[in-house]
Amino acid sequence: MPGFEKGLVELGDGVHAYLQPDGSWGWSNAGLVVGDGGSTLVDTLFDLHLTAEMLDTMKPLVADAPISTVVNTHANGDHCYGNQLFDGPGVAFVATDAAAHEMDELPPSAVAAIKAAAPPGPLGSFVEHAFGPFDFDGIEIPPITDTFSGRHTVAVGGRAVELIEVGPAHTAGDLLAWMPDERVLFAGDILFIGGTPIMWAGPVENWISACDLIEELAPRVVVPGHGPLTDPAGARDMGDYLRFVRDGVVERHRAGMTALDATRDLDTEINGTRFGSWDDRERLVVTVHGIWRDLEPDAPAPDVTTLFGHMADDFAARRR
Questions:
Q1: What is the C-alpha separation between 138 and 89, in angstroms, rounded?
Q2: Cα separation, 289 vs 180, whole angstroms
Q3: What is the distance between the alpha carbons of residues 51 and 42, in angstroms, rounded to a whole number?
Q4: Chain segment 236-266, per-residue pLDDT in tens
Q5: Contact assessment for residue 141 and residue 68, using Cβ atoms and an 8 Å cutoff
Q6: Which one-letter DSSP state was computed for residue 193?
Q7: How far apart are CA 21 and CA 15, in angstroms?
Q8: Whether 149 contacts 96, CB under 8 Å
Q9: pLDDT digits over 134-172, tens only?
Q10: Beta 146-148 vs 30-34: how paired, if at all?
């Protein structure tokens, strides 16, 4: 993955990114928009310690402009589990309707239980790799106060941030946060730069359309959900990857392969492409099964535990 440093990066007048190398499982990015007397935070981090550390670096910027609005780009915990530290009078939490609903389905306690119950062997090693660095104890997500579908504008301290719903894609309720005046876009997990994306929801066509939209907006800089800063070229790469995977899955489905065999075969083909150097290649299995659901909507879909087991096997195989 391209190198990048941890911490705040100024992107424009009062607009900042908070970056967390190496961008792998759980190591997500966030954004800060400082206005006159108030600020907007785009995403929190995976646990309270990491979010408190981020807030400490932001204190000089928000001393006269407290964070009064928190926008969550989607419901994955590495983008919302730190919300608790901002819960208080006058603070608004904003997300899509679908994301707010999804947050209730997988609370931090459930992730803590998965981490605690992981058995020895490949699955336990993989869960430790993905979740081991984070502490989920004592986390409670405050209710989302403002939800929307379609488009919505957040205006704090004279700074407007346009929110554009693009899910279901990566998750059920993804959004982009766009500042046309500064030409800065916060993409959430619509973009993983240098890392393999994972499609928990789909359909894949929605995700491809979201990448196309980022290109059409032509931002000067894009803050991805994971990885270093990018520009429209990062969205183009992600769209190209998703098209490659979609077409490969369709081809293998027609050939009569199972979803798991299709994943293994497609992963071998990826080795010879520019996507072969991306981290977290085990995530392909989840995306392939997501596309498979659209091809066979009546077929039973594997549960999350089964998918994590498949990822664990792939993760272990790469390290042999």
A1: 21
A2: 36
A3: 12
A4: 999 999 999 999 999 999 999 999 999 999 9
A5: no
A6: S
A7: 20
A8: yes
A9: 999 899 999 999 999 999 999 999 999 999 999 999 999
A10: unpaired
Round to whole Å and give the CA distance between 306 and 289: 11
pLDDT band at 3 (very low <50, low <70, confident <90, very high): low
pTM exceeds 0.70, yes or no: yes
Closest CA to 246 of 206, 276, 277, 216: 206
Q: Which residues pair with 32 in a beta bridge?
A: 16, 41
* CA distances, 60 to each of 41, 53, 63, 234 (Å): 15, 13, 5, 31
Please tell me the distance from the alpha carbon of residue 166 to that of residue 73, in angstroms, as a whole number.
10
Closest C-alpha to 31, from 54, 48, 52, 53: 54
φ, ψ dihedrals at 64, nearest 5°: -105, 5
**How far is 94 from 90, CA to CA, in rounded Å?**
13
Strands 92-96 and 146-148: parallel
Residue type, 113: A
Q: How far apart are CA 73 and CA 179, in angstroms?
A: 14
> Which helix (H) or strand (E) is 223 found in, with range?
strand 221-226
Measured over the CA atoms of residue 41, residue 47, residue 51 and residue 54, the dihedral's sign is: negative
The number of CA neighbours under 13 Å toward the Cβ of 293 is 15
How much is the pLDDT for 31?
A: 98
* Amino acid (one-letter) located at 315: F
Enter the tokens of residue 272: 């010879």
Yes or no: say if 193 and 23 are a contact pair by the CB < 8 Å rule: yes
Angle between helices 284-295 and 259-270 (to 10 degrees): 130
Tokens of 219: 């931002």
